[in-house]
Design brief:
heterodimer, A: 182 residues, alpha+beta, elongated, B: 254 residues, 2 domains, 5-stranded antiparallel β-sheet, 5 strands, membrane (chain A), NTF2-like_dom_sf (chain A), Nuclear transport factor 2 family protein (chain A), SnoaL-like (chain A), membrane (chain B)
Chain lengths: 182, 254
């Protein structure tokens, strides 16, 4: 800076405005660069895709956990949560089988709690709003007599985006040994 | 509009040059300028800076020079202040925009390139699938294959984890003369962060005992046709020398 100032003083008759102008131009250059850098960062398609991926995964994990959690003392709340976590065919299935299922759980007096061990997205079509997830789940079922049992589940879920929110549209367990021998 | 005016001006100037001895006082433009120039000095502001060229055609240049010199020193502070303010403003914006861009780039979603980098994602999936198939399969007639797989595909603490996990299976398989085959059925990359990644794997394990002693080896060897077991595990991998090596095995406490 000081050298530039000296040069300007040597070269021109008006060092101060020239120096100020040079500084302004430099600042303008930085501003232009930073501005377009910011614009690019904000309009990065890969980043938008990554955000969708994470949104789908967290919604998927939460929904799978919800659908494996049910307390016979709070059936209404639990089943409402089931319905709000799902969409499409799965939603219709749950809604239509609700009363029957509620009666069964009331009878059995079980409390199921699920914990997500791990989850990952296998496919994501962010335009169509569809995703497929793997969720490793540990379900603890407490029977009426208080005995607890743990069971691990390998869940496969399909998500559909409705009104900007990811919801489960299909859920099942990964089949075991289905392919090689019948 | 302005171009035709320019044209007219140029013609007039040329005419003026041709008839220099005769004073240009009679022309309307000349009078207009002659009237304007003395008046404005102070109040005209910055627009006056743009006008030195036509001014040269008007009256004698000698009378213009002192005026310009008189005007400049009075205008310098505002211009300087303006430039300084602009510098500060632009600099401020640059810093702010840079911080914004940095903030966006450091979002956790962006540092994870699982699925966004499709080539890398499928490369990892493919290599992990093959590795898990090999590492959890065992043939009692070829025990060396498992050791070789462990040496090829494992690194760090995964070496010990794998040995512990397989020790039991190995002993049992040797007794039963069994062949254990593991097949990965589903896998998904949870996260890729540079040269590290984590993959969730679902696998089926079948064991076929080839020994003839049915039922005598206890319930473990109760059946000698295919027995399938469902397994799920998460593996951490690191990229080394162009290959993905397993650095940790997570069986979720099982």
């Amino acid at each position: 800076m000081t050298r530039a100032a000296r040069l300007l003083r040597l070269g021109g008759s008006r060092p101060l405005p020239a120096l100020a102008l040079a500084l302004t131009l430099v600042a303008g250059g930085f501003a232009a660069w930073a501005g377009q850098d910011w614009y690019r960062a904000a309009h990065d398609e890969q980043a938008a895709y990554a955000v969708q991926r994470d949104a789908a995964l967290s919604a998927g994990e939460q929904a799978v956990q919800n659908l494996n959690t049910l307390d016979h003392r709070e059936l209404k709340r639990g089943l409402d949560l089931w319905e709000s976590s799902t969409t499409g065919e799965l939603h219709e299935q749950l809604a239509s089988g609700r009363d029957e299922f509620a009666a069964q759980v009331k009878e059995a007096k079980t409390v199921s709690t699920a914990r997500v061990l791990s989850g990952a997205v296998t496919e994501l079509d962010d335009r169509a709003g569809r995703a497929r997830v793997l969720v490793a789940l540990r379900v603890t079922v407490q029977a009426a007599d208080g005995a607890k049992s743990d069971k691990d589940s390998r869940m496969l879920g399909e998500l559909t985006r409705t009104d900007g929110r990811w919801k489960l549209s299909a859920l099942g367990q990964a089949p075991v040994g289905g392919t090689s021998t019948g | 509009m302005s171009t035709t005016r320019h044209h007219i001006n140029r013609q007039r100037r040329r005419q003026a040059r041709e008839t220099r001895p005769a004073a240009p006082a009679g022309r309307p433009e000349g009078t207009e300028r002659a009237e304007r120039t003395p008046v404005p000095t102070g109040r005209r502001g910055a627009t006056a800076v743009l006008e030195p060229a036509p001014a040269a055609t008007g009256d004698s240049p000698a009378s213009e020079a002192p005026k310009a010199a008189g005007r400049r020193p009075r205008r310098r502070p505002p211009v300087l202040v303006l430039l300084c303010a602009l510098t500060v403003l632009l600099g401020g914006f640059a810093g702010w925009a840079h911080a914004k861009a940095d903030g966006l780039r450091s979002e956790p979603a962006r540092s994870n390139t699982a699925l966004t980098d499709l080539a890398r994602t499928s490369e990892i999936k493919g290599q992990v699938t093959k590795a898990v198939d090999r590492l959890f399969s065992y043939d009692h007639t070829d025990p060396g294959a498992l050791d070789k797989a462990a040496k090829d595909l494992l690194t760090g603490k995964a070496v010990d984890q794998h040995r512990e996990l397989l020790a039991d299976v190995r002993d049992r398989a040797d007794v039963q003369k069994a062949v254990i085959t593991t097949t990965v059925t589903e896998s998904a990359v949870e996260r890729i962060d540079g040269d590290r990644a984590r993959v969730l794997v679902y696998a089926d394990q079948s064991s076929v005992a080839t020994s003839g002693k049915k039922g005598t080896a206890g319930e473990d060897a109760a059946q000698d046709d295919g027995v399938y077991a469902a397994a799920m595990l998460a593996v951490d991998v690191v990229h080394r020398d162009g290959r993905w090596l397993i650095s940790a095995l997570d069986t979720f406490g099982r």
